[in-house]
Amino acid sequence: MDATTIKLHSRTKSALDTLREENESYENVISRLILQAKNKGLKEKLIAAYKQVGKEELKILGEWESASQEV
User: Fold this and answer.
1) What pLDDT was estimated at residue 22?
2) Distance CA 2, CA 63 (A)
3) Is the pLDDT of residue 40 over 90?
4) Cβ atoms within 10 Å of 20's Cβ, excluding its own
5) What is the pLDDT of residues 22-38, one digit of tens each?
6) Which of 10, 14, 26, 44 counts the most CB atoms within 10 A of its CB?
7) Do 29 and 20 contact (CB within 8 A), yes or no?
8) Residue from 45, 42, 41, 12 nearest 29 by CA
9) How far is Cα 32 from Cα 21, in angstroms, rounded to an integer?
10) Biggest alpha carbon distance in the chain?
């Protein structure tokens, strides 16, 4: 694995320290935060998609409802 060095302000390192679980590396903390950020975006996209599907299903339900009343 290639490694690199990054500079952080001491307050940023302190913030990372508060997020670390016991004996967790900074690599793992940062990777976990990145994954959480990606999942947050995915969650918002899924919510929007489900809302759109719900609108379409309500429209279809309305069409079937009027057809059911005819029978």
Assistant:
1) 92
2) 59
3) no
4) 13
5) 999 999 999 999 999 88
6) 26
7) yes
8) 12
9) 11
10) 73
DSSP summary character for residue 14: H
Domain ranges for the chain, please list them. 10-70
Q: Are 40 and 53 in contact (CB under 8 A)?
A: no
- Give the tokens for residue 70: 């005819």
Annotate 39-57 with DSSP letters as a single string: HHHHHHHHHHHHHHHHHHH
pTM beyond cutoff 0.85: no
Give the whole-angstrom CA distance, residue 27 versus residue 39: 18
Q: Cα–Cα distance between 12 and 24 in angstroms, integer?
A: 16
